């Protein structure tokens, strides 16, 4: 089993930055794909970004390309989402997710482990 805990959410003005962290426990995460999703009330959970086990393969939603970066530290069992140039439409609960394997899917159902989520609020 893997447990995920996110941190780093908060409130920021448009144009600001936040860094989300995801810490995994329970087993080594080197062979997992790690991803970030976000969700607002009344909408489906949407893919934000993912990173392969080696850290060399990353994906980003079009809405965050050029503003967000993702990286991981396997030695610390952690993944990070650096969010720059934040916009009000980035406001959501952000979730960290893991899946066993090497391919980075963008659909939530492919991920078997989820964190509890952390709120990000961007004001205009």
Structure, described:
With 124 residues, this protein is mainly beta. The protein has no helices and eleven strands. The strands form two sheets. Strands 2, 4, 5, 6, 9, 10 and 11 form a seven-stranded mixed β-sheet that branches.
Descriptive key words:
124 residues; mainly beta; four-stranded antiparallel beta sheet; 0% helix; globular
Write the layout of secondary structure elements.
Blueprint: E1 3-7, E2 10-13, E3 18-25, E4 32-39, E5 46-51, E6 58-60, E7 68-73, E8 78-83, E9 92-100, E10 113-114, E11 118-123
Parallel strand pairs: 2-11
Antiparallel strand pairs: 1-3, 3-8, 4-5, 4-9, 5-6, 7-8, 9-10, 9-11
- The secondary structure category is mainly beta
Total of helices: 0
- What is the chain-wise order of helices and strands? EEEEEEEEEEE
Strand percent estimate: over 45%
Instruction: Give the beta-strand count.
Output: 11
For the CA atoms, what is the radius of gyration? 13 Å
Fraction of residues in helix: under 10%
The description of the largest β-sheet is: 7 strands, mixed
Output mean pLDDT: 93
User: Stretches where pLDDT falls below 50 for ≥5 residues?
Assistant: none
What is the overall shape? Answer: globular
Q: Could you tell me how far the N terminus lies from the C terminus, measured between alpha carbons in angstroms? A: 40 Å
């Amino acid at each position: 089993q893997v447990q995920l805990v996110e941190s780093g959410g908060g409130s920021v003005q448009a144009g600001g930055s936040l860094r989300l962290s995801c810490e995994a426990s329970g087993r080594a995460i080197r062979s997992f794909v790690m991803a970030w999703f976000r969700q607002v009330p009344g909408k489906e959970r949407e893919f934000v970004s993912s990173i392969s086990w080696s850290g060399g393969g990353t994906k980003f939603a079009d809405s965050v390309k050029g503003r967000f970066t993702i990286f991981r530290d396997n030695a610390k069992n952690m993944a990070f989402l650096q969010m720059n140039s934040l916009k009000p439409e980035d406001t959501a609960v952000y979730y960290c997710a893991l899946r066993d394997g090497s391919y980075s899917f963008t659909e939530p159902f492919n991920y078997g482990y989820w964190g509890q989520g952390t709120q990000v609020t961007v004001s205009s």
